[in-house]
Amino acid sequence: MTTTIAAAPATGARARLQDLCAAVLAGGESEDLLELLVRSARSDLDARSALLLTPLEPSRWGVEMVDGPDAAQLLGEQVPATSAIGRGLRDEDVAALEAVETLTIGEETCRVLIAVIDAGEQGIGLLTALRAQDAEPFDALCRERLDALAGLIGLTLRLPTLGASAQVDDERSRIARDLHDLAIQELFAVGMELESLVDDLGSPEEPPTNTRIRTSVKTSVQGVENAVAQIRQIVQSLRRERLEATLSEQLRHEVGLATAGLGFVPSLRLPQDSAHMDAEIPPEIAEDVVAVVRECLANAARHAHASAVAVSVSVFSEGVDRVVQVNVSDNGRGIDPTVRRRSGLANMSSRARRHSGWVDAINLEPGTMISWRVTLPVE
């Protein structure tokens, strides 16, 4: 299914969103950031009120924050389990939740716009904007804006537990230490040995014997082999650590890392039962799925000049096959028709061919969608 994103909003709105993103990434009190984001949802969408709904416990959600005149009536209220919103939350049915257009408050029916918040291990929540029944309906730009704010709220809720930035910095430091303590020291010793041999070869008074030359070269070759082996061990340990995380967790991590380069939080849509997807997709395909999403997000940050990026990963049946499809779309400037290079898709094409799949770049109005799909192996 093709994901369509509305045209980029006005520069002022985009700058405001980037400021909010910077505030979230800078850290601070989660409560203050959440209040800022909920308040922004109300003001930016010209809503009567904006609500933040979060999970209280499994299968129970409550209104944690309200900005607007409905606060006295709604703050602290729980979502009825039998309501359309309650059923959508229980089933994690994003499409059903986003399809809700009205909400009854007391005796009044209000227009409503709902965006789903992915809070990681905490579950899902909702960012909701309300307008009076006789007010203008919410449009596509309102949807885009609310989705972006919901993404920032999800990031705010995840940061205290994930510590994404700190984890990345710690990981870089650990890799640097391992390389310095192991491989680089070994290569430094090789350099010293070869430098000594060169000095001896340049001495007319005491030229080195053939035995000395053979020993020095043999020692140097062994040192290089040791360094290569140590680098391989470091890479393999990193790969094992990555594979300990589920595919869903790795995708959320990639989306979080891309936020700084894009200036906003990309949306991420996974199957309702993401645990089943994690179990169904084998590690070798999961690794390629993550790599494709990472490359698409990096390309969007460098070239697209977009204000919204949507990532979706799905698994479905097609005839007798089970298919994995990755779609990454943006609302940027699209593909330049005068450029005929395909190098940007080369890596993704190679990854697709490994699994009898393909990749395609599709022009949208506006923007681009990269669609990558492969067939799961038959058990």
Please tell me about this protein's structure.
With 379 residues, the protein is an alpha+beta fold. It has 3 domains: 11-162, Beta-Lactamase (2-Layer Sandwich); 165-244; 247-375, Histidine kinase-like ATPase, C-terminal domain (Heat Shock Protein 90), CATH 3.30.565. It is built from 12 helices and 10 strands. The strands form 2 sheets. It has a 5-stranded antiparallel beta sheet with strand order 2-1-5-4-3. The protein has a 5-stranded mixed beta sheet with strand order 6-7-8-10-9. Helix 7 (164-201) packs antiparallel against helix 8.
Key descriptive features of the protein:
single chain; 379 residues; alpha+beta; Beta-Lactamase; Heat Shock Protein 90; five-stranded antiparallel sheet; five-stranded mixed sheet; 12 helices; 53% helix; disordered N terminus
Question: Short description, anyone?
Answer:
Helix content is 53%, strand content 21%.
Indicate the topology.
Blueprint: H1 11-25, H2 30-44, E1 49-57, E2 60-67, H3 71-74, H4 84-91, H5 94-99, E3 102-105, E4 108-118, E5 124-132, H6 140-162, H7 164-201, H8 210-244, H9 247-262, E6 267-269, H10 274-280, H11 283-304, E7 309-318, E8 321-330, H12 343-353, E9 358-363, E10 368-375
Parallel strand pairs: 6-7
Antiparallel strand pairs: 1-2, 1-5, 3-4, 4-5, 7-8, 8-10, 9-10
